[in-house]
Specification:
Layout lengths: L14 H22 L3 H20 L9
Length: 68
């Protein structure tokens, strides 16, 4: 079922789902940079991006977009 509030992108998912995925990927990249540079501030920013991306993905019902 696709929510009427968000526009579906055909069989590719909703924009909110993709935004969540992009934020999670960016969070891992930023976190990795913080780990390599041993900069805790950058690591915390990566963690915050991870939480925001996870909430965005869950809010868009990313796990219910699978058709089987």
């Amino acid at each position: 079922m696709v929510s009427e509030q968000s526009e579906p992108l055909g069989e590719r998912g909703k924009r909110g789902s993709w935004l969540g995925v992009v934020l999670i990927i960016a969070a891992f990249i930023v976190g990795l940079i913080g780990l390599i540079e041993t900069n805790w501030v950058v690591g915390v920013v990566g963690g915050a991006l991870l939480v925001i991306g996870g909430v965005t993905a869950l809010a868009s019902n990313i796990m219910e977009q699978v058709e089987g």
